[in-house]
Amino acid sequence: MRPYEGSGAMLKLKGKWITSNYRDHIQTCVMSKKHLKFFLKKYDGSNGRIHKSRQDYDKIYWKGIGQARRRLNDYENIRIMKLMNGWLNTGRQKGLFGRETECPSCGWHEETQLHIFQCGEASMKNTRKNAFKLMEKYYHQHGVPGTVYVPFIKVCQATCNDKPMQANGPVHRTVEDAIQSQCDLGHDFFLRGYLACEWLIAIQHFQKDEPEEKFIHLYLGLWRSLFAPVWEQRNAMLHGESSRADKDEHEKITNELLEWKRVSHLRLGHQQQYLTEYNKEKIGQWKTTTMRETVKLLVKAAQNFMDDMLDNGHHRITEWFTPMNMDEE
To answer: Which terminus of the chain has fewer CB atoms gathered within 10 Å of its CB, N or C?
Structure first.
């Protein structure tokens, strides 16, 4: 059987003619069996390991993980690879080499990756609170539907508070399905970034235009806005005061953020002013990663504002913003 004339098909994989993205299809075909074997071996439940099945494997949107990781720089990619595989240098990892396993922040007897997100020490809780606010702004500015990202963040909050993975409010059936699938995968897998395929279905229901692009930002917001500052704060507790270079960078970005606030009426639209709802005291409580991501959001918002000005000033409905309550219970 030959492909339809003019279809552009050049090869056939698993009974399907491939017409585009040849490299991705070939890579998937070559690696899928090996990757599944690695996953099931790694999470076979032996020696105290987490147990995951083929059904769990199929729940995860692996394509989205790959697409999102292409947006990360080399340093971020290495760190995210360690996070996703449980290889971060936590107390549990140190314990494997006969070293102390306690959490450097609160003294909990064994610091796991999940504990880092759930640590009850005051500065860690404050870092998470600021991170959730940044996640909210990030998702809004990147066009993720609020009907998806609001419950997504609430589930993140519940997970970090070691509570049932619920949005604590009415949600659309597609979002409910996504939350249930994520619950089946567990707290730890969720915060590592193993997002369920149903999140894409939920986004597609509310966002017909480039839903996979919006889904990519679910990953990036989780990794950059939540994990990065939490990990930075944990390391600050472990290693003490920041270096002079870190302090200089913090001061430089602080001045940059204050300048954005001073000229926000010139660079940002009315519906974007919430991005500069901070002062010098609040900035002083932020992690450097949070500050960097905030600057990136401001740059993107300014570009969006300029694009709208050039497009007869029309505003998209997604520019409307409803703040969430980020106080931890």
So the answer is: N
